[in-house]
Amino acid sequence: MTDRMGPRPRLARLLAWLPAGALLLAVFLWYLSPHLVVEMAGRLWSCI
User: Fold this and answer.
1) Nearest in space to 41 (alpha carbons), one of 19, 29, 20, 18
2) Membrane-spanning residues where (predicted)?
3) What is d(CA 1, CA 4) in angstroms, rounded to the nearest whole number?
């Protein structure tokens, strides 16, 4: 497989997947432990 893409498209793809992965992780954690996600969201909100 030839690598025609430079570092910029690869970096852009990585930066696009990071929020998507974080969202999927948050949904998974909410399913496992809803109170943990609410506590983490409260901590994040207090930092902003």
Assistant:
1) 29
2) 12-32
3) 9
What pLDDT is attached to residue 44? 84
Give the integer Cα–Cα distance in Å for 15 and 35. Answer: 28
For 35, phi then psi, to 5°, come to -65, -30
Q: What is the pTM of this model?
A: 0.52
Please give the helix or strand (H or E) that residue 36 lies within, else none.
helix 34-47
Tell which residue, 9, 28, 31, 10, has the closest CA to residue 20.
Answer: 28
DSSP classification of residue 13? H
